[in-house]
Every structure is written in structure tokens, then in C-alpha cells.
Amino acid sequence: MNSxxxxxxxALRQRFIxxxxxxxxxxxxxxxxxxxxxxxxxxxxxxRRAAHSLAGxxxxxxFPALGAAARSLELFLDAEAGTPAELATLFAALxxxxxxxxxxxxxxxxxxxxxxxxxxxxxPTRSISLVDDxxxxxxxxxxxxxxxxxxxxxxxxxxxxxxxxxxTPPPDAVIMDLSFPEGDLAGAEALLAQRLGRLAxxxxxxxxxxxxxxxxxxxxxxxxxxxxxxxxxxxxxxxxLDGLTGDEPPQPYRILVVDDDALLAxxxxxxxEADGMETMALGDPTRALEAAADFNPDLLLTDLDMPGCSGIxxxxxxxxxxxxxxxxxxxxxxETDLDRRALAMQxxxxxxxxKPVTAQGLxxxxxxxxxxxxxxxTHMEHDGLTGLLNHSxxxxxxxxxxxxxxxxxSPLALVMIDLxxxxxxxxxHGHAAGDxxxxxxxxxxxxxxxxxxxxGRYGGEEFGALLPDTDAATAAQVVxxxxxAFAAIEHGAGEQRFRVTLSAGIAASPPIKDSETLxxxxxxxxxxxxxxxxxxxxLHQEADPPD
Length: 547
Known about the structure:
The protein is α/β, with parallel strands linked by helices.
């Protein structure tokens, strides 16, 4: 986030804080106008609108507790029920949070720092409330779900869960057992009762040892978004939670802007950034290959006429490289000669925009082509089962990352991972169960590694990960934690439960400088892990046997 944007957002935030007393006063007047007639239409509508506005603004300007308090009041007014005492309590809670916002320190900047080497990917932790009166089952399932990055709280009774709802913000999702001592459908009934209250927007999963139509119908009527039978398949349950709580937001499109006019390049970058894209401005086209390797763009936006290297020549050079043969290239120029435009397109261009280009025209053209490129690249580069990079794409990224590491004089670690005795998993539990194990490992890798790390399925049950700016020793610490976490995960096939372990080998640059040698060294270290008994992590040594 640049300083100008930070200053603008800080000014808006301060205006919000300054206006809070006026907002609260207007809401108080609307609530007072309702009087004893709690269902007075105009007054109630005015109060509800004020609460709705404050619920959205609170979180936007860095005060989530204030937003949550306003949201609770809004839901109460929406329900057109409740007592004046309940209304007074909700408004008092809102006033408390408003006072904290006015008198407290300014909220921290929302700009997220880059994750340092060795730390896991900065995925927001999502809270899960697991409500099940089976103590041992609930505690065990909470631990298993927690291994996938969720913050799970187990409540052994409906009473404990409902009491917690009164004092804490709603969780990101609820896993609710269907039956309790209060009744065979008590879980569904409790969930339904909260649909107009604290759990109005919280997705729920119903879990039960029953799977009959009546049980499933009760879950549907209670608003549950999924139904899972006991004992649950952990992979299916985690995928369900991922879908309900929302995975990481899509990465913004990355646009490399090449123009020798620095002011114009900056102008285009600001327009694209305002639309949510990431940009890199480059004034020297002869540095485009180096910049592309570092930035990994989704599209190249280049001027046609530049000294030293024209846009046409730049496109021809880029198209010589297999890694960039599908990269969209959009030319920007005041050129009106149709033959020259045709020549530019013949040399690898995908679109031609005439200067001066409108903001709408620039954004629409760039976004459309970047989106299409990313979709096509995803299909070409990613493994269909796990969603990770495939073998070829991972090898290409290894070459690029090694070149980048050498330019920046920074370390790069390559990790090779193989599941132990995986054939026995397929033979004993079936290939469908084996596929779920592969997806579970892929999910764990994405969760435990950083956003900047590059993960792929090397083939079969073998995976690879590139850890930029990470030496071998640091990589070993990260992978050891990952190995232990995966070994503790229980997988399922029908009523059967089983565990799978992994072995890993690590090699790093420096000292190794080329991709083939680095891959062979990591494979040799992996082979040594297998020879030494499996379920371990080994660093490359010169004496390692070849794979």
C-alpha cells in the first residue's frame, strides 16, 4: 500500500471516528421514537438502517467489534421480536464499542507484511465450533480438523455452546451433532432457533451417526449447508469447511508495464492498481526477461515505440522462450499506420490499444486477456487431482527460480516428498481413498507453506516444493513440522481409519547452481530417507546414493 493511499484511507478512517457520536445519537433518537411500541414501522426502519450502515462501516475502517455489535442490533431489529430490555442491552454494547473506537489507539494498517522464510503461508485462521456430547469423539475430531489450519473449539453440550454464543462473536462455521440428551433432533432444533439470532450468517454442517431421510430433512430445515455421517471422512469434511468458510481470495492479476516514458507507465500502473491488479513498471525493455522471471506476470503491456528495443522486437524476443510463449502481449501506441499495427500483431501481439486510451478501455482489455491467460495456464500447468503444479510446470519454475536466486544472491531450497508405502494404501483401501490421501497432503502443503513457495505434484505419490529465500537448514525445520503434522492425520475408507507417513529429501542452492543437478540431489536425499526407515527428512550430502 503506497503512502498516498494510506494517507487517504487514514483520513477517511478519522472522519468515520469523528462522526461516530453523531451516528450513535441519530440511532438513539430512532430507537427512542419506537417507544413502547416496539413494532413502530418508520422508527424501527430508521434504526435498522443506521445499524446496517454502521455494521458495514465498522469493519471497513478497522473496528470489527464495533461492526459486530451493530450487526447484532440490526438482526434484532430485523426479527421484529424481543423485549425492550434486550434492545437496551444491544445498544449499550454498541455504545461501548463506539467509545473504544473514539478513545482508543488507531487500528493497525491493513497492509500485510511479506512472510519471512520458514514461516507458513499467511492464511486467515477460521474459527469452528464443534458441538457434540461425545467427549472423546469431539475432542479427537477437533484435533484432526485443527491440523488443517482451523481454530476448533469443542462444546460437549448444547447448553455450553449457546452460553458461549452470548459472550463471544459467532464462529466462521458450526459443526453440530444432530442428537443430544434433549432429543433425537435437538441439534437441528437448536440450530434453527439461532437462525434469526447469532448464527444468522454462519454456515453449519450437521453431523450424525444417522443417515436416514428424516435426519437429513431436519438438517435442511435447520439451514445446515451439509450433512456428514459418523465416522466422518476427514478429507470430505475439510473440503466442505473450505468451501463454506471461503478459501483464500484469488490472487490479483500481475501486469508488467514497459514504457520508456516513466510518467505514462506510472499512470497506467495507477489505473490498473485501482482496479485491484498488481503492477510492475519497467522503463528499459532490455530488462524485460529478468523482470518477467521475478514478477511472473499474467500480461505484458508495452509501448510500441521505444529507444533501444521496440515493442515489436521485445515481443519477438519473449516469444522465443517456451516459458512465455502464451503470455498475452498488449501494445500501446499512438501509431495509426495499419500495416505497422499488423506487423506488431504478427510478432506475437494479442491486442493493440491506441493512445490516448481511456481508463475503462485499458482496464477492460487488460483484465479480459489476463483472466483468459490465467484460466488457460491453470489448465495447462496444474494437476487435475490436487490442483498443484504438474511435473512440467514445476520443472520450468525451478529453472526460473534458480536464475532469480542467482541474480539476487539468495538461497533456494528444493524439497522432494514421497508418501511411504502408498501402494499398500491403494491395495488395502482402494484408489478413491488413495486419491483422498493425495489431496489431503496437497491441502496441508498449501496451508503450511508460504504464498511465495511453489508446490507441485512431481508424479504419482511424489511432490515437490520450491522454497525461495530459504536455506537447507531452515527448509528442514519447516518440512519436519509438516511431516509430523501429516503423520498425525487420520484418513478414512468407509468404517476403516488409517494413517500415512511421508519421507522427504532437501537440496539447496548454493552450492548447486543448475536445475537438473539440484533435482537429482533432492531425489538422492529422499532416497536416503527411504533407506533409513522412511517417515523422516534428510538433507543432501555428497555421499548420497543416486536415486
